[in-house]
């Protein structure tokens, strides 16, 4: 993640040079550092050489690996935010992308200001958006506790009862914060979408459910019999862990 002196660094992965040029010019003018890759091989090389605050990833790429494959690889070893950019307006692809762990999904042709607004929303939660840097530098730590777990909202970190840090994606972290802050209250899928990624999840209940499944794997002793995040049939979810 960028520190307070450096601009957020974006990796744009798209085989269309016009799109790469368009995004580069726009985001550099908005005080971002931008690196581009034309395919998966180029993306892997850039990620070995640099650290990025977000990846803008095209879904249709040459070289045998599409954006879904690459997003899956990225998410298997990193929680860097991923925004998928695509000319394919397929609901199944959109759901799969979000289930894999992409943070947002926007169809081409897109408006640059909308891309920027949605990217800022993602980065703000990580503390990398330019407008949020100064505020984050002086922000007091906010820590939520439950059942021996420690959820540091300011530093965006989670530690288990043994003190070990648990890696969460942006979406998983925001989902957990929303649930813990409303412990004991049943939240609908729509409410969870509004509290976390808003339009990024749109109306896809499966995306919320998939995120809950991934979160349970990381915080429940037995994900098949959850004791912290319970389902409420036909409505949504409720956090039942003890919060001081």
Question: Describe it for me?
Answer:
- The chain has 244 residues and is an alpha/beta fold.
- Helix content is 41%, strand content 19%.
- The strands form 3 sheets. The chain has a 5-stranded parallel beta sheet with strand order 2-1-3-4-5, sandwiched between helices. It has a 4-stranded antiparallel beta sheet with strand order 6-7-8-9, with helices on one face.
- The protein starts with 8 loop residues before the first strand and ends in a 5-residue tail after the last strand.
- About 8% of the residues have low confidence.
Mean pLDDT: 82
Distance between the termini: 31 Å
Oligomer: single chain
Percent strand equals 15-25%
Got a strand count? 12
Contiguous runs where pLDDT drops below 50 for at least 5 residues: 128-140, 198-204
List SSEs in N-to-C order.
EHEHEHEHEHHEEEEHEHHEE
């Amino acid at each position: 993640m960028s520190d307070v002196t450096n601009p957020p660094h974006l990796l744009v992965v798209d085989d269309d040079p016009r799109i790469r040029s368009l995004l580069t010019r726009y985001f550099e003018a908005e005080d971002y550092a931008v690196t581009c890759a034309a395919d998966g091989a180029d993306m892997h090389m850039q990620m070995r050489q640099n650290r990025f605050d977000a990846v803008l990833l095209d879904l249709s790429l040459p070289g045998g690996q599409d954006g879904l494959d690459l997003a899956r690889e990225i998410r298997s070893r990193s929680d860097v935010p991923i925004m998928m950019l695509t000319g394919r307006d397929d609901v199944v692809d959109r759901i799969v992308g979000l289930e894999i762990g992409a943070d947002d999904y926007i169809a081409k042709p897109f408006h640059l200001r909308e891309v920027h607004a949605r990217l800022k929303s993602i980065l703000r939660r990580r503390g990398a958006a330019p407008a949020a840097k100064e505020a984050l530098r002086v922000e007091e730590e906010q820590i939520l506790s439950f059942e021996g777990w420690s959820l540091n909202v300011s530093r965006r970190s989670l530690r288990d009862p043994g003190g070990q840090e648990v890696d969460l994606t942006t979406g998983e972290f925001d989902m957990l914060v929303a649930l813990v802050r409303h412990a004991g209250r049943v939240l609908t899928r729509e409410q969870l979408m509004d509290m976390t990624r808003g339009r990024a999840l749109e109306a896809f209940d499966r995306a919320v459910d998939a995120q809950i499944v991934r979160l349970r794997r990381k915080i429940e002793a037995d994900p098949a019999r959850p004791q912290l995040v319970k389902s409420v049939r036909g409505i949504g979810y409720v956090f039942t862990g003890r919060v001081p």
